[in-house]
Design brief:
The complex is a heterodimer of chains A (354) and B (350). Chain A has 354 residues and is an alpha+beta fold. Helix content of chain A is 25%, strand content 25%. The radius of gyration of chain A is 22 Å and the shape is globular. Chain B has two domains: 160 residues, no CATH class; 178 residues, no CATH class. Classes of the chains: A alpha+beta (354), B mainly alpha (350). Strand 8 of chain A pairs antiparallel with strand 1 of chain B.
């Protein structure tokens, strides 16, 4: 796009979903590099667990996840195009940009802003003047240097992308282009979330880094390849089909549990637009003992439920840091392999020991 | 602080105050009208009282939605529950809660929970049915609104840092109160002195002194009945009631007191001049605070005014003038601190 970003760094926050298959092997299930969410659950789960089981944490030597917000803030401050002048009022203006209270992750946006001690802004709080971004405050305008944005690319700037967007800031792209403001993550990083691109990540690693990937991908078929298409259509009832540009467990087909109508519908959809779909074998995700309340809700039992793991990775001027913890997502319905919270999934505190 | 946050706090202050005042007024009117008796003449008086409530909240033109004049069933329903009435109690609570929602991360949890819990409670259809089933339950419901408002103010008082946000909340609350008290006095005055007003304010007030009871109701609806008796030891006289409600420096619901609070809040807010925390003036913004000048001038006038001055000017005209000046202060506050004005080409070129 012809935009230079500071230190050539595009992805400041990443959350890749990992799974463990029935052979015990860890694999990458998908990449989330646009605006990965869920870290507030990690922090909130831990708060609740330390309150409930205070002794266990010190006895077992569970590593703390408290450093996340501080590390994120340090990294964001480090992205500021204006350097802090010692003794000057203010310092770099860092904000969290949210679509607002109706967004399902609003709680997380507010939580992170509060933990970092920065303003939580909506598009209408910001304006661009001479390619600089300002927020409207009671004492006038204050320049914004770094935006941790939780809005998708196409809504960021109505002048550059979708013109009907009320969530963005007119002229923002110009400010990014002139280097007066830094976005985290950078515009365009969502390309990596595309499930067709996912298929090529191991080759990207080999080409650019000259290394073998440490974690494998789940085998993935691309219907846009005629040979794959044939295989996919003939084995649909044993495959998982995902929409390439969807997330949150939407637009998905679980072959083994689908009825004939659903299979037929996906068959015709795949044939009509093969580039929009991928297919993978069903991986029986590892299971974890999970408390399942009985029907009266008075007591319950521990039963196995399928899980996956999303670690959070921060990249900053001082390198890459992985949060010693993560979001374990659990499919609460018996036998289900769909862990997305938008599909009724739950989450678990996740411990990394010293 | 972000303009939007300041604006939310300002409106939380206004809406909660509005809800509480409406509840007090409805409760006091019930108390007053139930003892009027059941003659035809009493019935007409009762109806005038309920209709006057609509004037106070500025809802008369919109009412009745259908049917004849308002009465003790339709008016409270409209003032408390109606979703057609943007200023009904449940609507005020809902808007205060919406404002709090957008800045929940900056409020103490207890404050948010108090507001949210109450909002969810009054939204329950069962709660509404029960509250609307007769004078007694409606009165009790109004009491619960007042209790809620006091609880919220207590929680706010004990949890909120005395920073900018607090002063925006106070500015909203007391500006609302000043306007409300002015409107309440004005509407009651015209209702209670009736046609006597033709012969001048002093004559009308003297004639109205024969029936002190409705003036007691006016005091009650502004929760100033007991304070009146402590400050004025000689029984209820209309002139003394009006003087106290407008000009008292110590009564927390008088117009003068409320305007003083608005002035103090804006003074605190203006302490953080442009430049604070690395900010710069908005393009095209004036450096003088018009809001502060307006409110300071009004407060100073009250300090040196006597009731006679207001009567010379005409009580109704004086109260209208006070209301107009309150609206202007509100407009200035919005202009100066909430930055609604979109930038123009001139701003950008300058």
């Amino acid at each position: 796009m012809g935009i230079d970003v500071p230190d050539d760094q595009y992805i400041h926050v990443a959350g890749c979903d990992l799974i463990r298959g029935d052979d015990g092997r860890w694999m990458v299930l998908e990449d989330n590099l646009r605006t990965p969410s869920g870290v507030s659950y990690v922090l909130a789960n831990r708060q609740i667990m330390t309150r409930t089981l205070p002794d266990w944490f010190s006895e077992l030597g569970v590593r703390s996840v408290d450093s996340y917000a501080g590390q994120l803030l340090d990294n964001l401050v480090g992205l500021s195009p204006r350097r802090a002048v010692p003794g000057a009022a203010g310092g770099p203006g860092v904000v969290v940009l949210t679509p607002g209270i109706y967004n399902s992750a609003y709680f997380e946006h507010a939580f992170l802003a509060q933990q970092m001690g920065v303003e939580l802004v909506e598009g209408r709080d910001l304006f661009v003047l001479e390619n600089r971004v300002y927020m409207r405050t009671t004492t006038g305008r204050r320049q914004v240097d770094v935006i941790y944005r939780r809005i998708d690319d196409e809504f960021l700037d109505p002048l550059a992308f979708r013109s009907e967007s009320m969530l963005g800031v007119a002229g923002l792209l110009g400010a990014v282009r002139t280097g007066n403001v830094t976005l985290a993550n950078a515009i365009g990083t969502g390309v990596a979330d595309d499930k067709v691109v996912y298929r090529y990540v191991p080759e990207i690693i080999r080409y650019y880094l000259g290394q073998e990937p440490i974690l494998d991908n789940v085998p993935t078929y691309l219907p846009s390849d005629p040979e794959h298409l044939d295989h996919v259509l003939r084995n649909l009832e044993s495959l998982v089909v995902k929409q390439a540009n969807a997330s949150g467990g939407y637009g998905m087909l679980m072959g083994p549990s689908a009825d004939e109508d659903e299979l037929e519908e996906f068959r015709s959809r795949i044939v009509a637009s093969p580039r929009d779909y991928i297919a993978q074998p069903v991986i029986p995700l590892s299971r974890h003992p999970t408390f399942v309340p009985d029907e009266q809700g008075e007591s319950g039992t521990l039963q196995g439920r399928h899980v996956d793991l999303r670690p959070y990775v921060l990249s900053g001027p001082d390198g890459i840091s992985v949060l010693p913890g993560g979001l374990t997502r659990v499919a609460l319905v018996r036998g289900s392999l769909v862990v997305n919270s938008s599909q009724g999934g739950g989450s678990k505190d996740t411990w990394v020991l010293q | 602080m972000l303009s939007r946050m300041a604006e939310s706090l300002y409106w939380i202050g206004r809406y909660v105050e509005r809800a509480e005042q409406t509840a007090r007024l409805t409760e006091a009117t019930f108390r007053h009208t139930v003892v009027m008796g059941s003659t035809t003449e009493a019935e007409a008086r009762r109806q005038r009282h309920w209709a006057a409530l609509l004037d106070i909240v500025g809802e008369h033109p919109a009412f009745p939605p259908e049917g004849p004049e308002g009465d003790e069933e339709t008016v409270p329903a409209h003032l408390i529950f109606s979703s057609d009435n943007g200023n009904s109690i449940v609507e005020c609570i809902a808007r205060a809660r919406d404002n709090a929602h957008t800045m929940r991360h900056q409020l103490a949890t207890e404050m948010w929970e108090a507001l949210n819990r109450f909002h969810l409670d009054v939204q329950r259809p069962g709660r509404r049915r029960q509250a609307a089933s007769g004078a007694e339950s409606t009165t009790r419901f109004c009491r619960s609104i007042v209790d809620f408002s006091q609880l919220l103010q207590g929680v706010t008082d004990s949890t909120m840092p005395r920073e900018e946000g607090w002063y925006f909340l106070q500015a909203g609350k007391f500006l609302e109160r000043a306007e409300w008290t002015a409107r309440t006095i004005d509407v009651n005055y015209r209702l209670l002195v009736g046609a006597n007003v033709e012969r001048g304010d002093r004559h009308a007030l003297a004639a109205a002194a024969d029936d002190p009871q409705p003036w007691g109701t006016l005091l009650r609806s502004l929760s100033s009945y007991e304070s009146y008796h402590r400050i004025q030891s000689r029984g209820i006289r209309p002139t003394a009631v009006i003087e106290l409600l407008i000009l008292s420096a110590v009564l927390p619901r008088s117009i003068r007191f409320s305007i003083g609070k608005v002035e103090a809040a804006l003074a605190h807010i203006s302490e953080q001049a442009p430049g604070y925390n690395g900010s710069e003036p908005m393009p095209g913004a004036s450096t003088e605070s018009e809001a502060r000048r307006e409110v300071g001038r009004l407060h100073a006038e009250f300090a040196y005014q006597r009731l006679d001055d207001l009567l010379d000017q005409g009580l109704h005209e004086s109260l209208l003038d006070i209301q107009r000046r309150c609206y202007r202060i509100g407009d200035r506050v919005e202009d100066e601190f909430f930055a609604h004005r979109p930038l123009t080409a001139q701003d950008v070129m300058a």
